[in-house]
């Protein structure tokens, strides 16, 4: 039996699966724009390699924007797309649930 | 540097991390009570081994209740704890976001 229409929660977990992506988006959301080093420090203990891969996937899935500035030394900043910004209502529900259950 | 207080989203991803748990909880939520076989069919393509492990972790984290009935053949049913039931507001935000962005 093939699933003709995926459940929205299934689609969400396919995109956000793994333990890092929600945290990466949440960190960028709080700071609006973040450079790689700062993001790496905030989403501890992620490795630089895994963070790089996760950022590429998030960029491919149109959830984050990668901006590179022609400066010396080169500067790269990550920000959220409009779609990812609209996750804020998901985060606020997660936060209130989490605060209530993990005191 | 140690983190003294974990961000609620970090705690949430630690508990819900991986691609299956939100889907398992969502499937049980929609049916109230589910037997292993039905759950396995709904959370496709999870393996029986992985589903068993995920259910044990969810039970340990007090998100699901495992009830075993002394019948022949033995019957086991899974349902949500009050804490997991209160995730419904998270799911409804995920669903509306997902419906909007993955048409």
Compose a concise summary of this entry.
The structure is a homodimer of 103-residue chains. The first copy, chain A, has 103 residues and is α+β, with helices and mostly antiparallel strands. Chain A has helices at 8-16, 21-31, 36-42, 48-60, 82-85, 88-101; strands at residues 33-35, 64-69, 75-80.
Which ranges of chain A are low-confidence, i.e. pLDDT below 50, for 5 or more consecutive residues? Answer: none
Strand order of the largest sheet of chain A: 1-3-2
Helical residue percent of chain A?
55-70%
Task: Report the portion of residues of chain A in β strands.
Answer: 5-15%
**Structural class per helix/strand content of chain A?**
alpha+beta
Shape of chain A: globular
So, CATH architecture of chain A?
A: Orthogonal Bundle
For the biggest sheet of chain A, the summary is: 3 strands, antiparallel
Q: How many domains in all of chain A? A: 1
- Mind telling me the CATH superfamily name of chain A? Winged helix-like DNA-binding domain superfamily/Winged helix DNA-binding domain
């Amino acid at each position: 039996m093939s699933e003709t229409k995926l459940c929205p929660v299934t689609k969400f977990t396919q995109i956000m699966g793994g333990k890092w992506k929600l945290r990466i988006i949440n960190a960028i959301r709080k700071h609006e724009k973040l450079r790689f080093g700062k993001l790496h420090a905030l989403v501890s203990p992620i490795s630089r390699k895994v963070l790089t891969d996760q950022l590429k996937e998030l960029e491919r899935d149109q959830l984050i924007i990668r901006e590179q500035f022609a400066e010396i030394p080169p500067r790269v900043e990550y920000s959220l797309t409009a779609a990812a910004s609209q996750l804020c209502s998901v985060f606020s529900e997660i936060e209130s649930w989490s605060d209530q259950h993990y005191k």
